[in-house]
Structures are given as structure tokens and as C-alpha cells.
């Protein structure tokens, strides 16, 4: 019989979680609200974006600010964050006469690039819901998105991200 004591012992291979936020030394978890804030800050810098969020969300945010609650940077932003990817839904109001499709495309590009650069996740989609156009001189009150005839976005049955 051969002596097995001289054979090198097999080493166990530990499977490291996959994705840009994982390494052999550990994993990083980024909360949804962090990604939402990054998206909110990014889209607020785009020329032609008058306000973010629908009517109810904006009214709630204004009341919160008036009571000293601070500004909600992530208002109008909804995200789904996985270990490798993120999906973003944005609600905004465009300033007249900025071309809506150009503002939306710039918002999409800026949000996508900021999340991918700052968080390291692949952004699989950035959906934009333009709920109104603000015309200078009009009353600043915007009708609530809930009272419009637009149907709410369908809830996906399966996660959109990996």
C-alpha cells in the first residue's frame, strides 16, 4: 500500500459571489436608496427637468420640507438593485419649451452613466415617465399623477435584474 501521508492535501475551493461588488475579500451591498439618490442627483442636473416626482410625491415632499424634514433627493425615483444589475424608473416634469424626447434621453444617459460609474452595477433599463410640462407663468401646482387617465406601471412578475 502506498503511503498517503506524503500526498498534498486537496485545497477546498471557496466560491466567491459573482458580480462587480464581490471579491475574494468580501462583498459590498448597496441599498436601493443609495442608487435612488445617485439617480435623483444626476437627473436634477439635466437642463429642462423642471421637477421630479408625480403630483402626490411632490406635494408630500413640499410638506415634509416645510416641516423641516429636508429635501428628498430620491423623490420620483424607484430602483430595483441586484448583485450585478440595476433597473431605474423615473417620474419627472419637463420645462417648456425643451424637447421632451431630448430631455428624457439626456436624463437616461446621465443616470445610467452615474450609476454605472459610481456603483459599479450594469444598468439594464432607465424608464422615464413624464407626467407634465411646466410652462413659465402657470400656477406651480401640478395635478396629481394619480388623477390622470394614465394607468400605473405594471408590476413585473419576475425581477428585472440579476
From TrEMBL:
Compositional bias annotation for Basic and acidic residues: 1-12
InterPro entries referenced in this protein's UniProt entry, alphabetically: Asp23
Region (Disordered): 1-20, 143-162
Family: Belongs to the asp23 family.
Protein name in UniProt: Stress protein, Gls24 family
Organism: Boudabousia marimammalium
Amino acid at each position: 500500500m502506498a503511503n498517503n501521508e506524503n500526498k498534498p492535501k486537496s485545497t477546498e475551493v471557496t466560491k466567491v459571489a459573482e458580480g462587480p461588488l464581490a471579491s475574494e475579500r468580501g462583498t459590498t451591498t448597496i441599498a436601493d436608496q443609495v442608487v435612488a439618490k445617485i439617480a435623483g442627483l444626476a437627473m436634477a442636473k439635466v437642463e429642462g427637468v423642471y421637477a421630479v416626482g408625480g403630483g402626490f410625491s411632490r406635494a408630500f415632499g413640499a410638506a415634509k420640507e416645510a416641516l423641516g424634514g429636508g429635501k428628498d433627493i430620491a423623490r420620483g425615483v424607484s430602483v430595483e438593485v441586484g448583485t450585478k444589475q440595476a433597473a431605474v424608473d423615473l417620474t419627472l416634469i419637463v420645462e417648456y419649451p425643451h424637447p421632451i424626447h431630448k430631455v428624457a434621453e439626456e436624463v437616461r444617459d446621465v443616470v445610467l452613466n452615474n450609476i454605472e460609474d459610481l456603483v459599479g452595477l450594469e444598468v439594464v433599463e432607465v424608464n422615464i415617465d413624464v407626467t407634465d410640462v411646466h410652462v413659465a407663468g402657470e400656477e406651480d401646482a401640478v395635478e396629481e399623477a394619480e388623477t390622470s387617465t394614465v394607468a400605473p406601471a405594471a408590476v413585473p412578475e419576475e425581477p428585472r435584474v440579476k
